[in-house]
Design a protein that fits this description.
Layout (H helix, E strand, L loop, with lengths): L5 H4 L9 H26 L5 H72 L12
Helix pairs in contact: 2-3
């Protein structure tokens, strides 16, 4: 078990991963991708039917947006989930160690209470020779 707490491992959110920044970059990426697709469609597919143009437009837009969306959303989410699982595991370890320590303290307290009760109930004198033991 680590000597440092799980909160020390959490890194602050960088500017690149803040929600407004991510939303802005996604919006700009979609705008640029759609502009490129429309420019490409006008040059190459201007005489084809509307259905054909819709399918080509959707495929090109999806293809162009895959990489930015992967690096802006999916990858940070996967990293966040991985960090969360690691932190949850550490919390379980700390919780288990804490429960073990509480059980040990309860047992020691019970033993001390028994010893104190024996001392308090005895009619004879008690002489303590070694207070450390």
């Amino acid at each position: 078990m680590n000597s440092k707490s799980p909160q020390n491992d959490i890194q602050p959110v960088s500017t690149f991963l803040k929600p407004f920044w991510l939303f802005s970059i996604a919006l700009i990426s979609i705008f640029v991708a759609e502009a490129l697709v429309m420019f490409f469609m006008e040059l190459t597919f201007s005489s084809h039917s509307l259905r054909y143009a819709i399918v080509i437009d959707s495929l090109l837009l999806s293809g162009l947006l895959f990489i930015p969306l992967y690096f802006l959303f999916l990858r940070p989410m996967l990293i966040h989930v991985q960090r969360s699982k690691i932190i949850e595991g550490e919390i379980r370890e700390y919780n288990k160690a804490l429960r073990t320590e509480v059980e040990e303290r309860i047992k020691v307290e019970s033993d001390l209470r028994l010893f104190r009760d024996l001392i308090n109930q005895t009619q004879d004198s008690v002489l303590v020779i070694d207070p450390e033991a």
